[in-house]
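task queued by scheduler; priority normal; single chain, no ligands, no partner chains; default sampling; output format set to structure tokens
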Amino acid sequence: MDLKKDYKKLYQQWHKEFKQIKLTELNQDLFNHYKKILNFINEYKEDNSNELKNLILNSYKENFNFLFDDFLKLREVKIINSALALKEINLNNVIEAEKLFYQNLVGTIKGFKKVKTLSLYQGESEINLEDLIKSEVKIKEDIKEVSISNKKEKSLISESNDLIDEVKIDYTLVRFLKETPPLVGIDLINYGPFEKEDIANLPQKNAKILMNEKFAEKIELN
């Protein structure tokens, strides 16, 4: 296991996911590989006497976890947006949990649109309530199935907002230097897209990445 090489690979894929509108390719083997690395670094214990080594390890652990979580959240937002627009995605570029998530979202949205359409003609023709109830039950079962599947993948779906409230998040005011695609903050709020000269108050970790990549600059408040 080459941690430096794997970190660089994850960073490059995260950066590509961040910059482009379409989903990047993510196969199950690569996903499992990243999870294996995360499990290793999160469980690794170092002798407390070596403070410098512990500092480097903790920094590496924090950055790797952030990149991986943000990478999955970026993909989640793209999948949700595609499903809402009933836009097809390349199912060869997603892992099984993402595939099920997308397919069931599309099924739910189509089911809702069907019910909505039928309700518009309520006065003109009889609606089969039994069929609608069966359809609603099927949709709920599908969503529950995807939820269970995603939990087995250690959650592709956003965590509870109640948990977020318990964590103090610092924010930084930035000015964008060029067009920037939408992103998911570590507070799980969707930000963007942004135009050049736009100003936004973003979570400090997200802002730091944007500034490092020359997408934005910090606004100093006197």
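post-processing summary
- Residues 35 and 154 are 9 Å apart (CA to CA).
- The chain has three domains: 3-89, 93-152, 161-218.
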